[in-house]
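EI: anyone free to look at a 105-residue chain?
SC: sure, send it
EI:
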Amino acid sequence: MGVSKGTKRRNWTYEEKMRIVQRYFSEDLGIKRLAKEENMDYTLLNHWIHKYLDNGEDGLKSKGHPGNTFAAIHKSKNLTQIEKLKLTVAKQEIEIERLKKGYQA
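SC: here you go
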């Protein structure tokens, strides 16, 4: 199962996650019933509950993902000559590493 192509995934805030997990423990509701009331998948709720039990409140905090550091530079149209050269060098270093490992772009 997964998200259909083109649909936007729901981003849950830390506060929402805590509220829902606390409801699970305080209201004595089943996972499936609570998930239905909160309009979410019960497997996600089950995952949150296990994270909460294993790591406490910190288990529900988003770790974030840094993303591709070259993406913003690559899409920028007003690069200085030095930035263009740095981008070119970085691309060539990546290509060299791929070729060393036998990969083809």
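EI: The chain has five helices and no strands.
SC: 👍
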